[in-house]
Specification:
The relative contact order is 0.13. The protein has one domain. About 90% of the residues lie in helices and about 0% in strands. The protein is built from five helices and no strands. By secondary structure, it is an all-alpha fold.
Length: about 180
């Protein structure tokens, strides 16, 4: 039993570096996403027709299915969604891994060793929560913007379809007269 416990302890210690690297990358991505988001806000405030990915797709393809636009929204927001959900989990992992060595240091009277382990644990969880918080806010607002664009596009399609039907009825009436 003791061999299994020691083996698990050693294996989990190897997870710490990859988890910290992933958390650092997620935090950097969240800062990038925040900058991009602030740029989008400025673009929307100062330019009435600020080009978005949905507007560009519509301009390039003309008549495009709403389902295709919804899929584009999902693709565009996917990384934000992943980071906002995975970062807290990795933060928890990065908090729990050093707890074992910190508790061992406490039992041996090594308060400096315990403090060093806890510093890593708390820094990791704070970084993870900040990354998740930033990406979650950006995700929510961007999602609302993009879905509003799809809704506007869909309403435009319905109005065009309605006016075409009315025009076809007028043409039929003229032809039969």
């Amino acid at each position: 039993m003791l061999m299994i416990e020691n083996a698990l302890s050693q294996v989990t210690a190897y997870f710490m570096l990859p988890v910290l690297i992933l958390l650092a990358l997620m935090f950097c991505y969240s800062l990038f996403a925040l900058g991009e988001f602030l740029y989008d806000i400025a673009g929307r405030k100062f330019f009435a027709r600020y080009p978005t990915s949905i507007a560009r797709m519509i301009a390039l393809n003309g008549n495009i299915a709403v389902e295709t636009l919804e899929l584009q929204v999902l693709k565009e927001l996917e990384i934000l969604r992943i980071v906002s959900r995975v970062a807290p989990m990795l933060g928890l992992v990065a908090t729990m891994i050093p707890m074992g060595p910190a508790l061992i240091a406490v039992s041996q009277g090594d308060s400096l060793g315990m403090a060093q382990q806890l510093e890593v644990a708390f820094s990791a969880v704070i970084t993870a929560l900040m990354a998740a918080s930033i990406t979650f806010v950006v995700l929510l607002v961007k999602r609302r913007w993009l879905l509003a664009e799809i809704s506007d596009y869909n309403q435009g399609l319905m109005q065009n379809a309605g006016s075409t039907t009315v025009r076809e009825s007028e043409l039929r009436a003229e032809a039969s007269a």
